Amino acid sequence: MDAVSTLQHRPYRGRLAPSPTGLLHLGHACTFWTVYQRALAQHGTLVFRNEDLDPQRSKDSYATSMMEDLRWLGVSWQEGPDVGGPFAPYEQSGRREFYLETWRNLRDRGFIYPCSCSRKDLATSATAPNEADDEPLYSGRCRPRIGEAADYDSPTGVNWRFLVPDGETISFDDVRQGKQAFVAGQDFGDFVVWRRDDVPAYQLAVVADDAAMQITEVVRGADLLKSTARQLLLVRALGLPIPAYYHCDLVRDQAGARLAKRHDALSLRTLRDQGHTPSDVLKVCAC
Ligand SMILES: [Zn+2]
Prior knowledge:
The protein has helices at about 25-40, 60-75, 95-110, 200-210, 225-240, 270-275, 280-285; strands at about 1-5, 15, 45-50, 110-115, 160, 170-175, 180-185, 190-195, 215-220, 245-250. The protein is α/β, with parallel strands linked by helices. The strands form four sheets. Strands 1-6-7 form a three-stranded mixed beta sheet, with helices on one face. The protein has a three-stranded antiparallel beta sheet with strand order 4-5-8. A two-stranded parallel sheet has the order 2-3. β6 (about 170-175) and β7 form a beta hairpin. α1 crosses α7, α3 crosses α4 (about 200-210) and α4 crosses α5. The longest helix is centred in the first third of the chain and has 16 residues, at about 25-40. It is globular, with a radius of gyration of 19 Å. The two termini are about 30 Å apart. The structure holds zinc ion (ZN).
């Protein structure tokens, strides 16, 4: 499958889509600055979407801090939880109907099946995976249950997985990273689209929202390249237009480790409190 953007001639719409599960750190700052610059350069519209789907990990106070920190950095947006807009709500926690509709669509088209396997539950997150906690390859044990999907009126109570086309190479041209290719069934397996605790999974929510909000270019960190392959399968299954993808280089610390939210010392809050200016922060990004 070759992903050719069908949205190239539409007015540019980008998105800032952080999860309010911690303070923004230097790595986020670099990525979101790039998101902002891409939208500015194309005289486009920027959407702020609060990806607060995971009730266990999301906090309103973090959402407020994220917006404050981004404003401090100099990033602004035209649509979002704080300013409204034509595609409200801009908090994922308020968009359940969109996700249910997407789930029904996938069920009706025969792409998903219920899975009652238990051991991988903890490995499945509603927030963006990173290199360290990428979803493990699923064995496919519940694949034969694809015929049962039609019996379900709601996704509640079991995990739902997307049946990937084993052996198919999913390729796309990333605006920043160049040609990418991942093999379904090898690089990633049948991924979860709805969790048994009744939370839509990251992949489903992002695809549903990007389409509903008419996003033309997805700009995010390179840790999500493999997720893009999964999302392209969802986009195709749902017959949605394909956005362009731009994956930023990851910012690493001096030891070469990827900066994560848990590095509190490098949160924008801390840097700010230490007297650093936005231009000090952006100097580190080289983006
Ligand atoms: Zn299973």
